[in-house]
Design brief:
alpha+beta; about 180 residues; about 35% helix; globular; 6 helices; 6 strands; two-stranded antiparallel ribbon
Length: about 180
């Protein structure tokens, strides 16, 4: 087995890799955004692989065997979230590595195939997309990890797209882990 060298993940490279994975296995990998799914705004502009600027998207890669999903509506759902803080660089790398592992080993690994056939894995490698782009902990001056309605006035939370994205995923899904 060869070792894969670590390389830092930026918004553009992560977005490109997510798109490649979804296009390569449309039978069980689908890519969306919290903007498309829940009507959330974006937190700013990010660069793509071609150097163009566009609104930052909060991507969600869903990995599950959809051909058997209709017969298994209670399939456990798992959320993998990377980079709630945009400067924590290992989160996107790890989430993307897991995505690659599930998608690329499906045909050759019985254990991976069983996991994909019996679970729904939701991967958000760049939960704080603008933070990843800018290499900043916060989202436009707000720490997303302090933007949830725990132990604070609810009127002063859920202002970041990051926290709102996580909130909407939890509201829409019955996550097991």
């Amino acid at each position: 087995a060869s070792m894969v060298a670590y390389s830092d993940i930026c918004y553009a490279s992560c977005s490109s890799e997510l798109l490649r994975l979804a296009r390569g296995r449309p039978d069980f990998a689908s890519l969306s955004t919290t903007q498309a799914l829940y009507g959330l705004p974006t937190a700013g502009e990010c660069g793509d692989a071609s150097g163009n600027r566009a609104p930052c998207q909060n991507f969600i890669l869903e990995i599950t065997n959809r051909t058997s999903l209709a017969a298994d509506r209670d399939r456990p759902e798992i959320l993998i979230s990377g980079a709630l803080h945009g400067d924590e660089r290992i989160g996107p790398s790890t989430a993307l590595a897991l995505s690659r592992w599930l998608v690329e080993r499906y045909d050759s690994d019985d254990w991976v195939r069983r996991l994909v056939d019996t679970r729904t894995v939701l991967v958000m490698p760049m939960t704080n997309a603008i933070g990843v782009e800018l290499r900043r902990r916060d989202e436009l001056g707000v720490d997303p990890n302090r933007d949830f309605p725990y132990d604070q006035d609810p009127a002063h939370c859920m202002v970041t797209v990051t926290a709102r994205s996580i909130n909407e995923v939890y509201r829409a899904r019955l996550l097991q882990l």
